[in-house]
Write a structure and sequence with these properties.
Oligomer: heterodimer
Structural class of chain B: alpha+beta
Strand content of chain A: 15-25%
Largest sheet of chain A: 7 strands, mixed
Radius of gyration of chain B: 16 Å
Number of helices of chain A: 19
Helix content of chain A: 25-40%
Distance between the termini of chain B: 42 Å
Structural class of chain A: alpha+beta
Strand order of the largest sheet of chain A: 9-10-7-17-14-15-16
Distance between the termini of chain A: 69 Å
């Protein structure tokens, strides 16, 4: 294997050894995106090393050579300097480029968007550009890949770096061709001027730029874009459909053992110690070659054979301390209402009480949103190769490579510089992999057994120990005048703070701090021109709050907030005797909200009428609903068309529509793909998904106890991307999911005349609400 | 006696015990990662392979049960397709129409479940090369996707069916 790299006697030999240890044991990686080292990297690295100023990356591969050969003094896993062109871009002799960005592939395609941005600025074709595998010390620290920030936050950095690289290349070309920079043009990396040409590759091929950002590199004007805004295929899809794409689950390293975590099936209350009262090692004595790992309250098993490890984890008899304190799940209304919360007014404009006094009609309602799981189809997996005296290597699907590296270092008692993290894509995670608990567990086990350990969650681990999307209780009071103008909007929500401590850290003795949960300011009426609006955030303690561990989940907090806000708006529209879209438009003054509303009305062929104004009989009722909302500075509008089976209570979303304004659309086809996914996943969250538990433990442990939307119930989807070139690009990975529960709930009212103030809108809940009505 | 299995046209002596689920043998002995672990419970379909042309869940199928059957994984679909058609010099280089449709329709997002989706689609289209929307949805209903790619899968299966019909 990796025969290409095996040239005895060369410097590459060492690296080849390292690669053999790092790579899957059977096949060299084949997808182009995932090579840790190839000839281009090697030549670039030798330059980086020769340059002296920047010691990065692949020297750290020494850690994966035979023990003792690593030279710690020359290794760095620290982030390359952000203001150096070489940290971002390498130009190769064959006139191609490698982009070093720090935003990871989460299955949402944003690295393809970043490559488009870089290729546009450099005047290269998409076939001439690729991403470097993300790794500490090799790729820059661009922070979290979260909050739909890859294009909006990461894009400008990549664009700036590419513009700086272009200016440096054109300056070289100017000297080579004897033509002023201003008279040079570039097409596919071929610089032309004065009747002569030279390629980027000829100018710099695998040499360093050795240049810091000037701050003066001109950005290409948007009206000259040729690539950005066109439909480009995602670079990694061919590998994904042929089985050659490397997921973190595929990685194997020599000498590696398979680890499985042993813990109760389903988490209890966050922050409560997870204590093994007794562990009966004799229960796995018959299984060959199994090692039991106990570190603090952490219990795991490792074995050479994966299936043996699975059997050992399932057969090991452990008695766990039980604590009946997981009180909020299934009981959110009461538990959150009665909880001791810390209340703050986080927005206050005008005078809500005066506004309500002026109203001709007022309404007060309480809305409930459930705990939901991210539901990765592939469970968490990671490999850690602990080195007592060298660099420890981590393979992780984390969303934040540098922070996760720091967490692994901390749990091992190492400094960040003693740990390198190689980031490899996992299953679509939607916020789950903010922290990678599997990597932390693998770290504990690798240190305990003195060998590389691969940990893969079982299905119950993934469902039962996820850091869930938080539940929410929301109270809204609002009023309208005779003309259908909103006179006041008062929003108060109760939500737990997000966790910061993962389970392996807890079991290793970490102190679990409390955190504050915040009300969603964007989706609590901010879409509307309101003279009197107030937002109160009631933070529920996430330690001793009776809740499981929670963290961000796709469009964090936004579906919960909008399910309340946009149902209340709909109720006001109905009371005003107005069409839901016409009512919204009357109360909006922002052109972007008006734009997405008009567009979603157009694509859904919306015919104005008052909700629930069509008389229906029979068992199947149809309805349509609209909702608007956003996330990450993006504007989204959704229309839901549904059928309600009055007997069974089943809601079927038949067709979902969305319009989105995310400013300048870098890659319209990528955005469409995300919007469609948001509609389908949002439908699933609205109709089906709710974590369930006993008072001791979560009992949502698989796809039977936590069902998600299936093919037969999947709606048709129609989406429209508004390419608003006047505005900066904002996020597209999450926003369209946010209005979905509200749009479906509003469609339910249209069909039945009854409000669904809690979701998921399961058949049982629908039957109960209809029976009460 | 060691179990021998035939995967993508090649015969392999299996080291693992005969009750080991096929999936772990594919991953850890054959280095085939197209089929993926999702649930280990036969609930999601990420691990699907074809056994004598029929979709099975490799995460719950003991390896001994496929001895004597022809197992095809995602990696083996191009050769499977080439075998169905007139052999030509570059036939094995050509993707299965299902795989090509998945690229043309830009189906995958994270892609983790798509192995099972494509395997199930091949199973369906081998039996019925002109399925209705309802037949496609019914055939695919046992496979879960979290990214929300169902609408594109529907389009891709129809495209693949068209290609396969015109090739036969």
């Amino acid at each position: 294997m990796t025969g290409l790299l095996n040239e005895p006697g060369s410097r590459r030999r060492l690296v080849a050894d390292a690669v053999e240890r790092a790579m899957p044991a059977v096949e060299p990686l084949a997808d182009g995106l995932v090579r840790l080292v190839d000839e281009k990297e090697m030549s670039r690295l030798s330059f980086l090393k020769a340059g002296g100023a920047l010691v990065v990356g692949f020297t750290a591969l020494g850690a994966l050579t035979k023990a003792g050969s690593a030279n710690a003094a020359t290794q760095s896993t620290l982030a390359p300097a952000a203001n150096s062109i070489d940290s971002w871009i390498a130009i190769h002799a064959d006139n191609t480029a490698t982009i070093y960005h720090g935003k990871v592939e989460l299955g949402q395609g944003s690295p393809t968007g970043l490559l488009m941005i870089a290729a546009e600025e450099l005047d290269l074709g998409m076939d001439q550009i690729r991403s470097q595998r993300i790794e500490t010390g090799v790729t820059p620290d661009q922070g979290f890949t979260a909050g739909s920030s890859s294009i909006s936050g990461g894009g400008p950095q990549v664009r700036q770096a590419a513009a700086e690289a272009r200016l440096a290349l054109l300056t070289m070309a100017s000297q080579r061709l004897g033509v002023p920079v201003s008279q040079l043009t570039v097409d596919r990396g071929v610089v032309s001027g004065g009747g002569k040409t030279v390629t980027y590759g000829e100018l710099l091929g695998d040499q360093r730029f050795n240049a810091k950002f000037t701050g003066k590199a001109p950005l290409k004007p948007i009206d000259q874009y040729k690539l950005v805004g066109t439909r480009v295929q995602r670079v990694e899809i061919p590998a994904k459909v042929t089985g050659t794409y490397t997921y973190v689950h595929n990685v194997r390293v020599p000498g590696m053992l398979h680890g499985r975590i042993v813990r109760p099936q389903g988490q209890g209350e966050y922050g409560k110690p997870i204590v093994p009262l007794s562990v009966d090692e004799s229960s796995i004595a018959k299984l060959p070659g199994v090692k039991l790992v106990r570190v603090g309250n952490f219990v795991g098993v490792v074995a050479k054979d994966e299936y043996t490890a699975i059997q050992a984890a399932s057969q090991l008899k452990v008695k766990w301390q039980e604590s009946p304190t997981l009180t909020a799940i299934g009981n959110i209304g009461e538990a959150f209402r009665n909880a001791k919360t810390t209340d703050r007014t986080t927005f206050n404009k005008g005078n809500v009480e005066a506004g309500l006094a002026k109203a001709s009609k007022t309404f007060t309602r309480t809305y409930l949103a459930p705990f939901q799981t991210h539901g990765m189809i592939g469970p968490s997996a990671a490999i850690v190769d602990y080195q007592e005296n060298g660099i420890t290597t981590v393979f992780s699907h984390t969303q934040l490579p540098y922070s996760q590296r720091d967490k692994v270092a901390k749990i091992l008692g190492k400094t960040p510089a003693q740990v390198r993290l190689i980031r490899i894509e996992g299953s679509g995670c939607y916020g789950h992999s903010a922290y990678d608990d599997a990597a932390l567990a693998a770290a504990l086990m690798s240190k305990a057994v003195g060998a590389p350990v691969r940990v893969q969650y079982m299905r119950w681990d993934e469902h039962g120990w996820d850091n869930y999307g938080p539940a929410q209780l929301t109270d809204i009071t609002a009023g309208i005048d005779d003309k259908g103008n909103i006179t006041a909007f008062s929003y108060a929500s109760t939500q737990p703070g997000w966790m910061s401590t993962e389970t392996a850290e807890e079991q290793n003795g970490a102190v679990v701090p409390n955190a504050t949960g915040n009300a969603d300011l964007d989706n609590s009426g901010a879409q509307y021109a309101l003279a009197n609006r107030r937002v109160i955030s009631r933070s529920l303690p996430n330690v001793n709050g009776g809740v499981p561990k929670v963290v961000w989940m796709r469009a964090p907090g936004a579906p919960q907030a909008l399910h309340a806000t946009e149902q209340m708006i709909d109720e006001l529209a109905h009371a005003a005797g107005m069409d839901p879209i016409a009512f919204r438009k009357q109360n909006i003054d922002n052109y972007r909200w008006l734009g997405v509303l008009d567009e979603v009305a157009r694509i859904s062929n919306w015919q104005p009428r008052v909700a629930n104004s069509v008389s229906q009989t029979g068992n199947i009722r149809t309805g349509r609903g609209v909702a608007i909302g956003g996330f990450a500075s993006t504007y989204a509008a959704v229309v839901a068309e549904i059928e309600v089976n009055m007997k069974t209570g089943k809601i079927r979303a038949t067709h979902m529509y969305a319009a989105q304004d995310q400013g300048l659309a870098i890659s319209p086809s990528l955005i469409e793909q995300q919007m469609e996914g948001c509609l389908v996943q949002g439908t699933s969250r609205a109709l089906l998904e709710e974590v369930v538990s006993t008072k001791n433990r979560v009992t949502s442990l698989d796809w039977a106890s936590y069902p998600i939307l299936r093919f037969k119930d999947s709606p048709d989807v129609t989406v429209s991307v508004i390419d608003n070139k006047k505005e900066k690009s904002s996020g597209s990975g999450e926003p369209t999911t946010a209005p979905v529960p509200a749009a479906i709930a509003n469609a339910f009212f249209d069909a039945t005349g009854v409000r669904m103030t809690a979701y998921p809108m399961t058949p049982a809940r629908v039957r109960a609400v209809l029976a009460e009505a | 006696m060691a179990t021998t299995i035939t995967v993508n046209g090649k015969s392999h002596a299996v080291k693992a015990s005969e009750n080991t689920p096929l999936l772990y043998v594919l991953h850890n002995e054959l280095g085939l990662h197209g089929p993926r672990f999702g649930c280990g419970l036969s609930q999601c379909g990420a691990c699907s392979v074809l056994a004598d042309g029929k979709e099975i869940r490799s995460c719950v199928t003991p390896v001994a049960l496929v001895a004597g059957k022809k197992v095809t994984t995602l990696e083996g679909l191009p050769a499977l397709w080439a075998g169905r058609k007139e052999q030509s010099a570059d036939a094995t280089q050509q993707l299965h129409p299902v795989q090509q449709a998945w690229i043309d329709q830009q189906v995958p997002q994270c892609g983790y479940c798509q192995n099972g989706m494509m395997i199930q689609a091949v199973d369906l289209l081998t039996k019925n090369d002109n399925p209705t929307d309802a037949q496609i949805k019914s055939a695919m209903n046992g496979h879960l996707c979290r990214c929300g790619t169902y609408p594109r899968i529907l389009k891709a299966v129809k495209q693949a069916a068209q290609t396969m019909r015109s090739a036969s």
